[in-house]
């Protein structure tokens, strides 16, 4: 029986999921880089970390990092030399939540955000975030500068506050909501990669909504929110298929 794979800890989803050469041939087949392969490229080549430190952050052995990194570099070489399109999708990974005992990053932004914004909430309280701008629902999730966050219980809004995103990108925004213990997101348009990140974090999506942020939050509290379950964002293509560990609980189910 083969040894099961260990889920690889990934800080956040990549913000761009597809790349293509300018003179792309219609017959060219894309090369697929897994999310954990992307993470090794980010940590080692972009951040300049050693493979040993990369392994600490991803919570896998150095030899595993070597294998993942070598595979990633080979795929990037094929893309550059052969002029092939590249997509980032799938893999065996778990998103970091920034909480004590979970985050191995030495300067993890999620850990800082968690310390600043993590708030206790009641057992029966639903925490809802809305993409926010001047009282209205901001229409592009990935570019929102603020969230308005509501605590809802028994059909009533108990409290709300506005939280700055500090220029975070798509994957980082999902991580911010995750560390704030947000249960649901109300927004306008949202791309496939961001949707995948939200699902990974266990955050329910109510997309395709416009108008007043307060009004939408109240409508959700009353079970009357009109939203589009098939919302798409024109700026993004669909995130590729593949399974992520967090969707079935990495602690109790090993990746195969």
Task: Explain how this protein is built.
By secondary structure, the protein is of the alpha/beta class. The protein is built from seven helices and eleven strands. It has helices at 35-46, 51-58, 62-82, 109-117, 170-179, 192-200, 213-221; strands at residues 8-10, 18-19, 31-33, 86-88, 93-95, 126-133, 136-137, 146-153, 156-164, 184-186, 204-206. Strands 6, 7, 8, 9, 10 and 11 form a six-stranded mixed sheet that branches. Strands 2-4-3 form a three-stranded mixed sheet. Strand 8 (146-153) and strand 9 (156-164) form a beta hairpin. Helix 4 (109-117) crosses helix 5 (170-179). The longest helix has 21 residues, at 62-82. The chain is globular and about 55 Å long. It starts with 7 loop residues before the first strand and ends in a 35-residue tail after the last helix. Mean pLDDT is 81; it is low at 235-256.
Structure characteristics:
alpha/beta, disordered C terminus, three-stranded mixed sheet, single chain, 256 residues
Write a brief caption for the model.
By secondary structure, the protein is α/β, with parallel strands linked by helices. 30% of the residues lie in helices and 18% in strands. Helix 2 crosses helix 3, helix 4 crosses helix 5 (170-179) and helix 5 (170-179) runs parallel beside helix 6 (192-200).
Helix/strand/pairing category: alpha/beta
Quaternary organization: single chain
Q: What ranges have pLDDT less than 50 throughout 5 or more consecutive residues?
A: 235-256
Q: How much helix is in the residues? A: 25-40%
Percent in strands: 15-25%
Radius of gyration: 19 Å
Topology as H/E string?
Answer: EEEHHHEEHEEEEHEHEH
**Overall 3D geometry?**
globular
Q: Cα distance, first to last residue?
A: 11 Å
Average pLDDT, all residues: 81
Q: Would you report the number of β strands?
A: 11
């Amino acid at each position: 029986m083969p040894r099961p794979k260990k889920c690889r800890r990934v800080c956040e989803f990549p913000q761009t999921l597809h790349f293509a050469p300018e003179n792309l041939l219609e017959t060219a087949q894309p090369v697929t880089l897994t999310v954990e392969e992307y993470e090794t490229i980010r940590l080692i080549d972009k951040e300049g970390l050693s493979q040993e430190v990369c392994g600490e952050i991803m919570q896998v052995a150095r030899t595993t990092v070597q294998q993942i990194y070598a595979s990633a570099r080979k795929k990037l070489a094929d893309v550059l030399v052969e002029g092939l399109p590249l997509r980032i999708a799938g893999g065996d990974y778990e998103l970091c939540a920034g909480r004590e005992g979970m985050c191995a990053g030495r300067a993890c932004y999620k850990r800082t955000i968690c310390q600043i914004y993590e708030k206790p909430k009641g057992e029966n309280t639903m925490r809802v975030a809305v993409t926010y701008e001047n009282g209205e629902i901001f229409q592009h999730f990935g570019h929102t500068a603020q969230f308005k966050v509501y605590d809802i219980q028994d059909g009533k809004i108990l409290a709300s506050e506005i939280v700055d995103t500090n220029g975070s990108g798509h994957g980082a925004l999902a991580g911010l909501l995750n560390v704030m213990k947000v249960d649901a997101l109300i927004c306008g348009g949202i791309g496939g990669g961001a949707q995948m990140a939200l699902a990974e974090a266990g955050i329910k999506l109510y997309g395709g909504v416009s108008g007043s942020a307060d009004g939408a939050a109240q409508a959700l509290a009353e079970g009357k929110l009109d939203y589009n379950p098939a919302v798409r964002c024109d700026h993004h293509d669909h995130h590729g298929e593949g399974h992520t560990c967090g969707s079935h609980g990495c602690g109790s189910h090993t990746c195969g």
